Amino acid sequence: MSSSDLRHTALDALHRSLGATMTDFAGWDMPLRYGSERDEHNAVRTGAGLFDLSHMGEITVTGPQAAALLNHALVGNIATIAVGRARYTMICQEDGGILDDLIVYRLADAEDGSPIFMVVANASNAQVVLDALTERAAGFDAEVRDDRDAYALIAVQGPASPGILASLTDADLDGLKYYAGLPGTVAGVPALIARTGYTGEDGFELFTAPEHAEKVWLALTEAGAPAGLIPCGLSCRDTLRLEAGMPLYGHELSTSLTPFDAGLGRVVKFEKEGDFVGREALTAAAGRAEQNPPRKLVGLIAEGRRVPRAGYSVVAGGEVIGEVTSGAPSPTLGRPIAMAYVDAAYAAAGTAGVGVDIRGTHEPYEVVALPFYKRQK
Amino acid sequence: MSNPTDLRYSKEHEWLSPVEDGVATIGITKFAADALGDVVYAQLPEVGESVSEGETCGELESTKSVSDLYSPVSGEVTEINEDVVNDPSLVNSEPFEGGWLFKVRISEEPTDLLTADEYTEFAGN
């Protein structure tokens, strides 16, 4: 795809003025990094980082039966989300395969009392999710609206982010818990302020109208400078989420895996009312997982310095016992790390004799429980 | 940073220093280092190993990818840069100086190298 075919965010000119290296991500021309990705990673762990995530796909679901529709279409119990709260969930196929992982925000209730939800999908799956929700909405008194162009999304992540954002907003950030979101203003413009992220740090995701994105970005840049805030690209976002043990669609999650295969069976709420897409297949998958444990998602830490990459084989005793799904040098640990699906017999932390086939050489790796990194609260 | 005019360049983005007593120094260009991102691991050829023009002789790992390292010239490796082995970020911070990779006693004059101007145009920078 040539650069001219790519979609550009409202902050495109700013990224270029900052000298960003851009990359094609799911059809969007996005900042990969501005300078050193390691410095960007460390800024988020120790101070704060600023991300343009406007490629994420926002879908608004409204109407008297909006909750019933989402309970039918998704595997979580969306009807129990309180106003101002958010939930991590998934949308599955009829056969239980994962179509995408999502965050659903219950933004507010309309005047008639019906809820207003915002579903945030991965950029690469936004159309698939939109199509599935639209199709699954048949027979429900609910509206599914494509709001991808209605929002820019800016994230400020890192331990310094509450202080930085507090200086720019009227919102009560102390009262805003993890996985909560409320409408407010940032730098004088309307924004939906959510305490969510994909870095393993405290932080916020700010949904604003695209025409306000530059103002919000510049205000955060200025307010955050004393705390070490720097712009951050998708490259460090990947190493941050990997250290935090967070799955990425296309790597740890795919249509060929159910949430139970991914070790995320807890997001499937069988106890909710009514039928939902995939219930039958997921019930069977849950039973299978109990009786005959599938491959498990584990962490691997290199003893050496060669970096495992997605698709590399995990080996033990000369046999292939798993596959790397994500791998990178970890700035925090100072060693290469990976997430991998391995046979259950090799999944216990400390299992001896496990390695990764790195282009023909079996390099020794330590099996650990995820995550690699957990912030101090 | 412009490409130093006293160096010669390969289309695989390596540079070759002027030859002194039959030995030339080899590294990768600023353009290549920028494209890789933070280099985290350098697997260099061993001292005494023979390398051939245009063939792989090692690899450079960065956060996002691994890239083969090609020798721009044929000959025998006489020295590798241990500083880069210990601190691969030198490849990013000083690609034309402290981030050099290895030295080769040249057995054949390379055939397909570019001048700084030609390389700058080739790399589009």
In the sheet with the most strands of chain B, the strands line up as 1-2-3-9-8-5
- Quaternary arrangement of the chains shown? heterodimer
Distance between the termini of chain A: 43 Å
Biggest sheet features of chain B: 6 strands, antiparallel
Helix fraction of chain A? 10-25%
Q: What's the architecture of the largest domain in chain A, going by CATH?
A: 2-Layer Sandwich
Mean pLDDT of chain A: 96
Q: Would you state the CATH class of the largest domain in chain A?
A: Alpha Beta
Which structural category do the helix and sheet elements of chain A fall into? alpha+beta
Largest sheet of chain A: 6 strands, mixed
* Unreliable spans of chain A: none
Using the alpha-carbon principal axes, give the shape of chain B: globular
Low-confidence stretches of chain B: none
What amount of the residues of chain A lies in strands? Answer: 25-35%
**What order do the helices and strands of chain B follow?**
EEEHEEEEEHHEH
